[in-house]
Amino acid sequence: MAAIALLASCSQNTTPEEDAPDTGSLDKFYSQELNFETCTPPAEKAWPTMEYQCANMDVPLDYANPDGETAEIAISRIPARSADPIGSVVLNPGGPGFSGTAFAATTADAWAQSAVTDRFDLVGFDPRGVGASTPAVDCFDDEEREADAIGAAIGVLPHALSEESTSEYYAHCAAGSGGEDVLAHIGTRDVARDMDVMRAALGDDELTFAGASYGTRLGAVYAEMFPENVRALVLDGAMDPLAGTKERRLQQADGMQRAFDEIAKFCATQSDCGLGPDPGRATEVFQSLVQPLVDAPLPVTDGRELTFTKAIGGVTLGLYSQEAWPAVIMGIANLRDGRGETLLALNDLYHERAADGTYLDTLEATGAINCLDEERHTPDEESALIRAVFDASPFVDSGRPVENVRDTCEHWPIQPTLGYPYATEIEGLPDTLTVSVTGDALTPHQGGIDLADTLGGSLLTVEGEQHGAIVAKNTCVDDIVADYLIDLLTPADDARCAL
To answer: Which residues are part of the catalytic machinery?
Structure first.
């Protein structure tokens, strides 16, 4: 959900429940037993006192055809440390497209001192189309990713998009991901149905869920579709359920520019600031450094180059947390001096590129899932929106024309399935907890306010400059989340924490 996702465009409203199957035909999925076995946790998250388990779950590829093809959902579990657990907390890290199996490990590390890990199994899953689940989205090979194929495909350089390139984008994704049927059934509503099957397969009568960023959309849609099955929802870094694609992208553009301006102010206090001593001119200075990379990438090492797309990706990583600001500032100073290795390394982290040159397919899944969730635009509408985005967030402006820009998803033959607004006027929903950071660049604070109000739930406001807060190892946030998840106690109306 950063510059790449910000500039992507997709989809249109439909009625999501027209093809909902009779629940009796899904009994074989709801009644399945999950065979958890001890497995190897992510290398950077290994704890001698926590067992890491893996299993797979079968779900219909198309819920309107339960007897047809199936998908397999990869699940991870870290068992509760007490002998009398309440149940499971199902986790989602966002994206869309990020691995939830890995997020279980991240969350266990962040909550290692929390009573939540005593009373709940922590359960992560790779949503359909993502990570270790099968089939998974795969649109480009590693050489194409290195050549910024995904950036061209989903609009970091919108002037490069054409009717032909968007057609090729869909063809690449369909060929690498298992065909049209797969791409037709990887939207948020499909994943919400998978979560209800998972709830039953885990043995929980009601769902306890914690989702970050896009995970807040997933949790809210689940609440809309299965309100009677909700026990508790923690929604961190909220996507605004009331904002359509255009409004949300503009909100995010405003948030990203505000965060960049904060980085510029911090940079101006340092001894060697590549953006210069005047924060008011920082965007202009940055544009002078990165826009030439569109036509003349900067050679770095081993045949690699720092392109405009990679430079923007490296800086975007710094918008997720104030802790990354020094690295971004160093990268910009290096670029001023004709060196691109720091920003390239930051972009590699953002794009999940390994040292051997292989890429995870996270952002490819992001684009494909968004094609079933977001509103679709005509070339005139998309051109106007891109111009408005660049006006709101000029630091990402490539400096190239944006006339006749194509919608990334214009050749997707599948109608989108989310619909806007969503998760409104839900009856019978228990109290929920939305956590929202005031300086969140990727999901601005107003979205958290709107989500809490729409769900009729509680809001925890967190002062800080960071995307999300529930895995920040902040005692104030952790205590409030634990009270809610364990005892269903919600904070006071004016509850606030500080990072």
So the answer is: 213, 440, 467
